[in-house]
Write a structure and sequence with these properties.
With 424 residues, the chain is mostly helical. It is built from 18 helices and three strands. The chain has one domain. It has a three-stranded antiparallel sheet with strand order 1-3-2. The longest helix has 46 residues.
Length: 424
């Protein structure tokens, strides 16, 4: 197992080198490093987020963004420090994928190849090697954004849940949500999974632990600066539909057929669209997101499901959060990369291929053709539409895997009952 781990980390580091020196993976002409650097400098000089420095992210994003500035906030120094910092997060993600694959092997295990021993190591190797390919799929996007940190917290929370530590797991999911919001959608899935396993007490205690973590962190931000904290909330509420999002594609379609003008606007550090139907379309997509999460909760609650189903359902919920939100920034694809690694480890090959294709399409579009999307060049908009369609297929494939797992469990239960009757 140690050799497999070292091999995976070697592949990851080699891929990281590609994102620094080899095109097209090294293309970073559009990135958030300037924003992070200009935030880190005053914070490391004693300023507080929300009070002294405007901050749009949840409170625990502040250390994830600012700490590399300890090496220096000059452009090149910060670029290298942030690359090393995010590489450390990527290492954590690779190792957590391996541990989750091993935990999932305790349920419906993947069949090993001829000569391999199915001790949990085989899917762990597959997961780590697949996760190590993240730089190849995403390029410089991976090291110029902080999204790997909430992803690592999401995976750590799911691993604790899979290892029968639900209160700690839900608390860690709360930490992830306090870093970037998307891990929060895994919480109702985890609670439904616990209730289905007859662990209601641990479910409500875990829910309280998660709420306590989020509430404490949010309360600290409000205590530092009520106005600054609420400005951060208003920032996202008032933000227009982002040009690469699924609602934006609908607005562009309405504009194309003459049903209202989709006006481009540059605000909130991104490019968005204003349209008379924008709020209604965004609300419709939010309703779809709630429905998808509810469906995932129902699927994991139907029967006593294993850790594998929990992980798949939680990661599909995060993919749905990206797909159906009014913002789909390119770095959001990082959230679903662990799903590809784990799906590959568990031989859900169509699901793994779907996530990989969505990542590759994102890399082709961003940053090379991002401004073509803003300019509404048909080919570039079509590329974004294809990526979003693939993400929708990923959500559908994930639901199919959960349904397939339920049917297989029903067959196993029926066979067990038949054997029991035969013995009697």
């Amino acid at each position: 197992m140690r050799r497999a781990t070292l091999l995976a980390l070697a592949v990851l580091i080699a891929g990281w080198a590609l994102t620094l020196w080899v095109a097209p993976w090294s293309d970073e002409r559009v990135n958030d490093l300037f924003v992070y650097r200009t935030f880190a400098e005053p914070v490391l000089s004693g300023g507080l987020p929300y009070r002294d420095v405007a901050f749009e992210y949840p409170p625990l994003a502040a250390p994830a963004i600012a700490l590399p500035g300890l090496a220096g906030t000059g452009e090149e120094t910060f670029r290298w420090a942030f690359a090393i910092w995010t590489l450390a997060a990527a290492v954590a993600v690779v190792l957590l994928c391996g541990a989750l694959a091993e935990a999932g092997a305790g349920g419906r295990r993947a069949q090993p190849e001829a000569g391999a021993v199915d001790s949990g190591e085989f899917p762990a190797r597959r997961a780590m090697l697949a996760a190590a390919l993240m730089p190849l799929l995403c390029g410089a996007l991976l090291r110029t954004h902080f999204d790997l940190f909430p992803v690592a917290l999401l995976l750590a929370g799911l691993l604790l849940l899979a290892r029968e530590r639900p209160r700690a797991g839900l608390a860690v999911l709360g930490l992830g949500a306090a870093t970037k919001l998307f891990p929060l959608v895994a919480v109702p899935v985890a609670l439904a999974w616990l209730v289905a396993r007859g662990r209601r007490r641990e479910a409500w205690q875990g829910a309280l632990a998660c709420a306590a973590v989020v509430g404490t962190v949010a309360g600290a931000a409000v205590a530092i600066s009520p106005d600054g904290a609420f400005d951060a909330v208003r920032y996202h509420v008032d933000r227009p539909v982002q040009v690469e999002s699924s609602p934006a594609l609908v607005l562009l379609g309405l504009d194309a057929v003459g049903a209202g003008e989709a006006e481009g606007v540059s605000s909130h550090r991104s490019d968005g669209l204003l349209h008379p139907a924008a709020n209604a379309i965004a609300s419709l997509f939010l309703t779809v997101l709630v429905a998808v999460v509810a469906l995932l909760c129902a699927l994991v609650a139907r029967q006593r499901r294993g850790p594998r189903e929990l992980v798949v359902a939680a990661l599909i919920a995060c993919a749905a959060f990206a797909l159906f939100g009014k913002v789909l920034s390119p770095q959001f694809v990082i959230w679903v990369l662990p799903l590809a690694a784990l799906a590959f480890a568990w031989r859900m090959h169509a699901l793994a291929a779907g996530v990989a294709l969505a990542a590759v399409l994102t890399q082709i579009e961003f940053p090379a053709h991002y401004f073509d999307v803003v300019a509404r060049e048909p080919a570039a908009v079509g590329l974004v539409a294809a990526r979003n369609f693939v993400l929708a297929a990923v959500v559908g494939l994930g639901v199919r895997e959960l349904l397939r797992g339920r049917r297989q469990q029903e067959l196993l239960d029926a066979r067990g009952a038949a054997v029991a009757v035969g013995v009697d």
